[in-house]
Amino acid sequence: MSAEFKPVRKAVIPVAGWGTRFLPATKAMPKEMLPIVDTPTIQYIVEEAVASGIEQICLVTSHTKKAIEDHFDRTLELEALLEKGGKTEYLEQIRAIADMAEVVSVRQKEAKGLGHAVLCAESFVGDEPFAVLLGDDVVYNEETPCTKQLIDVYNETGGSVLGVQTVPHENICKYGCVDGEKIGDRLYTVNDMIEKPSPDEAPTDVGVLGRYVITPAIFKKLRETKPGAGGEIQLTDALKALAKDEKMYAYDFIGRRYDVGDRLGFLEATVEFALRRDDLKDAFAQYLKTVC
Ligand code: UTP
């Protein structure tokens, strides 16, 4: 079987950035541990990967992100305490987090960009296609998780797939922008990409939103990629180079996406997830009515 048609079993979740947009909260705490209601952001992302059929997950971390590694480990003292107190529901909940998937971590020793973070996971990935989920992007879809949608497209096409959505024209400067042709209901070919273009230079309003399925050929491209904007090794630059050698697609995924690394995005996620919770929605909606 060629590398191209191996199943997607592994995911890389880069979480080694500094989270400067969320200071001071992120001074001593990883932004990926910011809770949406009562669950850390990173847990929603790992749950999405698992629900998409991913078997092994690699967190790309840094020395300031130990709390994330601990979150997916057992906490025997806490388990003993909960067991003694008869708090079975909590006990099951925290054990399930540790048993959810095989989670390993590698260190990105310096935050040299998203592309560099993905390159740090090369030996974990090996010669297989893999998913990338950004550690601060949450996508809500109750039926088909976003990563599963991209894996389905990969299985049909055999090419790398970028998760995209059409964004307001004035906001395209916040994203990687896809230049390509629409070839299906939600599917585009990728001919080129521009990282954070000004609205004037953007060829489309199709923005890349934190989810990818990528062939292992990306690693050679990442090694060849020179530091770009901000001195960082950009994943977009390596994907651009890969799109010249291999077919690449962009899929307009179905789901509500939140940029939890942004203050407003975090607040939107908090409010909307709380309103989806059976135990909170009535009281919270009532409260929102009184304050708005
Ligand atoms: P962002 O650019 O959103 O994250 O990167 P950041 O750099 O932490 O945030 P700001 O802009 O300073 O607020 C997207 C994802 O890539 C990871 C981040 O942790 C985030 O999950 N990342 C980014 C790395 O793992 N390493 C890097 O060198 C850069």
Key descriptive features of the protein:
10-stranded mixed β-sheet; Spore Coat Polysaccharide Biosynthesis Protein SpsA, Chain A; 292 residues; 35% helix; 14 strands; alpha/beta; 11 helices; binds uridine 5'-triphosphate
What does this structure look like?
- With 292 residues, this protein is an alpha/beta fold.
- It starts with 9 loop residues before the first strand and ends with a helix.
- The model has no long low-confidence stretch (mean pLDDT 94).
- A hairpin with a 2-residue loop joins β2 and β3 (39-40).
- α8 (218-224) packs across α9 (235-245).
- Strands 1, 4, 5, 6, 8, 9, 10, 11, 12 and 13 form a ten-stranded mixed sheet that branches. The protein has a two-stranded antiparallel sheet with strand order 2-3.
- The chain has helices at residues 41-51, 66-71, 76-84, 88-99, 114-119, 122-125, 146-157, 218-224, 235-245, 263-275, 281-291; strands at residues 10-14, 35-36, 39-40, 56-61, 102-107, 130-133, 137-140, 160-166, 176-179, 187-189, 192-195, 206-214, 248-252, 256-259.
- The chain has two domains: 10-261, Spore Coat Polysaccharide Biosynthesis Protein SpsA, Chain A (Alpha-Beta Complex); 262-292, no CATH class.
- Bound molecules: uridine 5'-triphosphate.
CATH architecture annotation name of the largest domain: Alpha-Beta Complex
Helix content: 25-40%
List SSEs in N-to-C order: EEEHEHHHEHHEEHEEEEEHHEEHH
Number of helices: 11
Q: Give the overall form.
A: globular
Question: Runs with pLDDT <50, length 5+?
Answer: none
**CATH topology group of the largest domain:** Spore Coat Polysaccharide Biosynthesis Protein SpsA, Chain A
Tally of extended strands? 14
CATH superfamily of the largest domain: Spore Coat Polysaccharide Biosynthesis Protein SpsA, Chain A
**Name of the CATH class of the largest domain:** Alpha Beta
